[in-house]
Structure formats: structure tokens, C-alpha cells
């Protein structure tokens, strides 16, 4: 898969994303193409774009890239887009895949968003003990995931609060020197 480099609005490199993600960001007017593959175009139903090698965000985004995202219930719901991992309906609770009573921890890989009904039904059991199948595989958000989650948020321009952690970050704008 071809990767595209994302620059922040101040031109500092942030991350790489798939070409498909890059095109979506440009189509949503969240980024502009800075460099494209010469002669290559992305063509789909209503799309005709140069194939971006580098895109730049239209708005400045603060992302604490040097940090691993700390686990939180809210973060799990955001990561899973409030979709229940068992039935796909709207999730308002966080389920421990391996229950805490069986040694499961508060970690990204052991927790999923779940609707209240499925969480109640599963109770203190693993999915196999409860005869329930996970439809998604829990993952730890990478910096690229974090950036995309931040960009995908409709309300507010900031990061989800689970990412807004104190500490070193790359948030200082590295603006090009003016002559
Ligand atoms: Zn459910």
C-alpha cells in the first residue's frame, strides 16, 4: 500500500497514512496536496486527483506523538467509534474481554466498546465462555490512528481528551523561516 506523508499546517511532518486516507482528507478539505506523483491520478466516480505523496493539514492539529495514548474508558469508546464490539449497535459501556475477575487488565488490547445489554449478558465471562464473538479486534491506537481520530472529530477542533496528555509533544509550530 502506498503511503502518504502528512504535514501539520506548520509544515512539520506528523505521520504517514494510506493513500486512501490521504485522498479522503483532501476530499474533505482537511488537507491540501503539497507534492504529488508526477503523472499519476486517483480516479473514481467523482474523484480526479493527483496521487498525493505529501499532504498538509489545513488546520493546525496538536498531537502528542511521543506519547503512547493512555488507556481510558472514554478512549476505548472513541477508538471503537461507539460501536458495540458484539452486535454493532451504539455502545455506551466498556467491556473487559478477559474479565478483571479472571485477571484481565485495563488495557487497550483487553477492552472494547459494548452496548449495555451485551455487557450485562457477557458478565464476568470471556467471549468464548459466554458464547459471544468479537466482531472487531481491539488495538492500541498508533500516532496515525490518534491523528485520524482527532481529524475525524466533528465537534471541536481539539484532540479527544484521552489524547490530551501532558508531556513532550511536537506541537510547537515549525514555521518555515521568513526571509
Ligand atoms: Zn451489543
TrEMBL record:
Pfam family, one: HNH
GO molecular function, one term: endonuclease activity
Boundaries of every HNH nuclease domain copy: 71-120
InterPro entries linked: HNH (IPR002711), HNH_nuc (IPR003615), NA-targeting_endonuclease (IPR052892)
Name of the molecule in the record: HNH nuclease
Amino acid at each position: 500500500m502506498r503511503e502518504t506523508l502528512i504535514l501539520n499546517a506548520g509544515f512539520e511532518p506528523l505521520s504517514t497514512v494510506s493513500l486512501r486516507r490521504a485522498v479522503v482528507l483532501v476530499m474533505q478539505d482537511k488537507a491540501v496536496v503539497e507534492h504529488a506523483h508526477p503523472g499519476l491520478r486517483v480516479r473514481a466516480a467523482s474523484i480526479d486527483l493527483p496521487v498525493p505523496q505529501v499532504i498538509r493539514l489545513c488546520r493546525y492539529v496538536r498531537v502528542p506523538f511521543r506519547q503512547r495514548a493512555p488507556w481510558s474508558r472514554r478512549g476505548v469508546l472513541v477508538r471503537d467509534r461507539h460501536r458495540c464490539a458484539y452486535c454493532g449497535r451504539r455502545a455506551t459501556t466498556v467491556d473487559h474481554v478477559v474479565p478483571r475477575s479472571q485477571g484481565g487488565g485495563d488495557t487497550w488490547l483487553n477492552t472494547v466498546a459494548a452496548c449495555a445489554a451485551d455487557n450485562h449478558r457477557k458478565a464476568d465471562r470471556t467471549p468464548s465462555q459466554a458464547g459471544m464473538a468479537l466482531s472487531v479486534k481491539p488495538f492500541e491506537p498508533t500516532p496515525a490512528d490518534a491523528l485520524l481520530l482527532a481529524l475525524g472529530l466533528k465537534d471541536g477542533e481539539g484532540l479527544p481528551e484521552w489524547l490530551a496528555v501532558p508531556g513532550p509533544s511536537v506541537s510547537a509550530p515549525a514555521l518555515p523561516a521568513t526571509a
